[in-house]
Every structure is written in C-alpha cells, then in structure tokens.
Amino acid sequence: MSAPDVGRAITDSRGGLSIQRWTRVSRVFTAGALAIVVLLAFVPLLKNGNLTQKLTALFLLVIMSAMWNALAGYGGLVSVGQQAYIGIGAYGTVFIAHHGVPPYPAMLLAIVASGIIAVPFSFLLLRMGGGQFAIATWVVAEVFAVVVSFDQSLGAGTGISLIELNRYGPQNRQSYTYWFTLAAAAVLLGLLFVLLRSRMGSSLQAIRDDQDAAASVGVRVMVGKRVLYVFASVGFGAAGALTLANTLFIQPDSIFGVSWTAFAIFMVLVGGLGTFEGPIIGAILLFLIQDWFADQGVWYLIGLGVVAILFALLLPRGLWGTVEERFGLQLMPVGYRVRGLAKSLRPDRRPPADGEGTPLRSGGAEAEIPESL
Amino acid sequence: MTFVNALIQGIMLGGFYALLACGLSLLFGVMRIINLAHGALAVLGAFLAWAVVDKTGLSPFIALAPILAIMFGVGYALQRGMLERSIRAGELIPLLTTFGLAIVIENVLLATFSPDVRSLGGTAGIVTTMSWRVTRQVSISALGVLILVVAVAVLGGLHLFLTRTRYGRAMRATAQDADTAELVGINSRAVYARAAGIATATAGLAGVFLAIRAVVGPLSGPAQLIFAFEAVVIGGFGSLWGTLVGGLILGVAQTMGALINPQYTNLAGHLVFLAVIAFRSGGILAGREANA
Questions:
Q1: Residues B141-147, mean pLDDT to the nearest whole number
Q2: Is residue B100 part of a domain?
Q3: Is residue B104 part of a domain?
Q4: Mean pLDDT score across all residues of chain A
Q5: I need a labelling partner for A344 at 20 to 30 A (CA). Which of A11, B14, B103, B117 fits?
Q6: Which of B32, B89, B237 has its CB closest to that of A316?
Q7: How far off is chain A from B288, nearest CA to CA, in Å?
Q8: Which domain holds residue B211?
Q9: What is the ipTM of this complex?
Q10: Which pLDDT score is estimated for A9?
Q11: What does the alpha-carbon distance between residue B67 and residue A256 come to, in Å, rounded to a whole number?
Q12: Total of domains in chain B
C-alpha cells in the first residue's frame, strides 16, 4: 500500500477554502534571499580579507545550524555526534589531497564521502530512538576521532594542515573558500527548501509533529529519517571540509569535539527548532555573540548554555517560531496556507497538542468517559 | 597469565562502570529520559569531594556522606526546576536541556577549579595502595575490589528498594503508568524527584571513586557519560542487573583492548558497544525477561 498523497488530500478539502503556498510576503522574501546570495558573491572583490574570512565563518554556522535543524526539527533526531562528519569532511579532504587531488576538488570528494559513510551508520543508529540515538551518534564521532588519532599520515593526535592550499596566494585562497562556502550554504539550504516542499517534505513535517500519527496514515518514517540523516551528514561534511579551508589547521580533538553540537543546539533553539528561517537567524546571532563575547572564555560558554536551557524551557519554538506563530508569517514557503478560514481559525502549522494529530496516544479514550453515567 | 590479569582488572573496572551507569539506567527506567548531564554530575560530585577533603583534611570516604546528601539534593532540585518542565515540553527538550546543563556544569567547574586534573588517590589511605598478589603477573587491588563491592551493593540496594519498599513500589508503578499510579494516590512528582535525587547521588558516588582511582578534570564528564551509556546499552536498557553485566563487559573489553595496545582501550569498548547495537539491539541479556 502506498502512502496517501498528502498534497492532494489537502487540495481536496471542502469548498470555500483554497490552498496556497506563496504569499506576497514570501514571494518578496524568497526573491530577496536570492538577491542577497548574489550580492554576497561580490564580497571578495572588496579585498577585505578580514570581512571575507568572517563571513565565511558565518556561512559555516548557517550550514551547521540548518543541517542540525533538519535532523532535529524535522526528523525528531537529536544528534550529539554530527561532529563525526565535520571531522570526516576535514580529514577526508586532507587524505584525498595527499593523494594528488587538488584541494578544492578534494573537498568536494570528501563531502560526497561523508554522505556515503553516513548510509551504513544510518542503519546502525536509526535503530535507536531518542536519547539512545543521541549518545550513540556521539560514540561514533569518538570512534572516528580515535581512529584518526592513530594515523601518523594524518598527523595523529597533534593535527595537520592542508599544505596543498599554499599553491594559491592567501588572497585567492580566501576568496575561493568564501565562494565555495557561500555556494555550499546556498545549495544546501536550497536542497532543504526543495526537500521540505516535496511530498517527502510533507511526510517529514508530519514526522516532526507526531511520528506515530504519521506512521498510522502511511508515512514511511524510517525512509524520511534516513534521507535527513544522510543529507545532514553531507551538510556537516561540507562544514568540516570548509572549516579546514578557512582555518587551515585541524586537530582531531577539536574537529571531532562535541562543542560543534553545542553551538548547533544553541543556534537552533534560539532561532526556532523546526522552522526554515529560525536556524539562519540563530546562526547570525551566534556569530555576533562570538564576535562580542568569545574572549570571555568559560563565562561565554556558560552564558550560551544557560540561554539555550532557558529557550528550551520558556520559548521552545525559538525566536522565529514564536514570530511565525504570532503573526502567521512565513518568509520561505515550506508549508501550505489555507485561505478563507475565519481569522480566529487561522491554522497553525502544528496541530494543537491534544488535537486530532495524536490518535495513537494511549490514555485518551479513558479521559473521555463522562463523570456521571 | 597477562590475559587472566587483564580479565580480573577488567572485571574490577567494570564494577566502576556499573556504578557510574546505574543512575543513568534508573532515570531512564523511571522517566524514559537520558540525562546527558550524567557525566558532568559525576564530575561535579568528584570536585565537591575534592573541595571538602582539601578544606577539612577528612578522608574522602567520610566526605562521601555530605556529598551524597548534597548530590541527592542537586538531583531533586534539578528534577523540580528543569527536568519536570522539559519532559512536559516533549521528547526532544530533555535531551537539549540536559546537554545545556552539562555545558554549564563543565564550564562552571573550569571557572572555579581551573582546567587542572585532580585526584583523591593520595588522601584515601591504605586502600589505594594495598593489593593481593596472586601470582607473579596477577594482582588484585583492594580499591578495585572495594569499588566492585560498592557497585554490587548499590545495585542490590536499588533492586531491594524497588521491589521491597513502599517508595520503590510507587516508583515502579509510576514508571509503568504515571496517570494510573496517580489514581491510586501516588504523588508522581515526588516519585520522579526522588528518582532523580537517587540517580544523581549515585553519579556523585561514582565520581568520587573515579577521583580516588584515577584523576578527574572539569572536562572529564563526556567520557564518563559515554562509558555509562555504553554499559547501560550493552546490558540492555531498563534492567539494573543488565547494567552490572554491561559494565563488566565494557570493563573487560577495555582491558583486553589495552592488552593489544594501550591506545585501543576506549576503542575496544566503543566497538563492543557498536557490535551490540548492530546485532543485539536489546542488549546482551535480550530475550530474558528483565525483572528489575
């Protein structure tokens, strides 16, 4: 039996209502986003090395934030181990470049390799749910870190740099890395956008809202999660390869470090878990905070931790999720909007917690028994 | 003979892992959450003990009494202040908040105690140096035996608590079905808070033993969390005796790995863990009815 066509099911709704994806705001904004990407492509021509490098770092944060959100926000998969793929992307680049491939094509190959490696691990890891998945991903990252630290040709525990990049002058190297990172961020976000708008995207958003309910109407939950896991791993692989290109030197303890995940969680929680725009906002915020406070050392990290906890407890939909809920605003149209409903009935993209979205939850039936029979 | 020695050392190390893991196992059994701050809480217990021993000159074994009480209180407060809200907010949130908490604890310890590693080994008295030499290659350290005995005692005590006492029965009832437990007059909030208190106290206990048998630094938490988690998964989630078995297997795997090459210590444990999730995802005891 095939899954019901979610898109058609919605368009078949009762008369008087119509379905739309694009609104004027989202049309303007999507066009604006494309224009910004095009404008950003000209930044290296300003020959401001500092600016170029900083923006590269920002794009890297955007990639990590969006990819982590793809996993957690849409697949319900909290991974504490995506740094495995940051490390694979970075060390994969070094490894491939040592075998005679020019550095930038080597990065591309390493990114592909991240995705290929993610496939078998997705079978292993997705057998587990929730917290077990979380720590198991972490163990996988540790295994990769240990294996790399055994390998003398990869610099073992002391680290290694991508000397092959020296063939380009510093200015060109910075520009190429910038363009590569901008392109990677744009392509990954574009793919995520297309993925979320596809039929699989509807399944993914259903999985996010209620995995059991989604499965009960025929959504293939496992396939959706596997696609997300591999996609996010490609994204983190790209972040790793380009982190290497931006910083030139890597070391297993830091490139496979769990602090990448800590930053990703902060960005996604603050920006808005399960929204398209939120993680980008979260990345910009973290970028600014890093710029202002990173020299505060441990207190900066304590602050990030506390803020993340407070957002999780008090504003679990993050800044953008809250705005979206309050104003019904969606800048990047990844959902559907129903026209013609009374204002008070304006649909939230998420079903209410105790609504029809949760038919499989036990205990509901008992609660319906009236007190006086 | 070195093989026999590695086996014995592994079993004693496994006792430590079981002790480290039982709180994680209990909290998962009762509340279905995985506390990503478990390792950081163990390290917090170790640093509190170090501070007490440093200030008062007491033996760490005496300092344990107030530390356990404090850690119970920390766990209780944690449940009331943070976990309770997190659990209500959905499945993902407890993972995110406990991860955030781990980062906060780690960095507060860094800010307070500097990144140096510390040990309580020098202050714990004769137990750290005493050992029985069975043959030329095989020796059994008193501390290893002590930790193994404590681990078995804590797990046995928890088992008796859960099966024989009123509080324990209330905890199992709440774990099975909190709403129904409420119907028969059980205060599930209090039950959860007690479970979190006990889990945190055992984490603190394990942390103190870690500091006695080795060294701890503010950033030791993640490794301890991973070891505890591996022990729980290898043994099978939700079973306390499974956790003991899982701890022992992990310990033996690590010492056997170290036998080949000391660098392989952790890797061997990780590989056993990955093999278990690949081939026996219910844990090594899967198939038997877990009764704890």
A1: 89
A2: yes
A3: yes
A4: 81
A5: A11
A6: B89
A7: 20
A8: 23-218
A9: 0.86
A10: 43
A11: 34
A12: 1
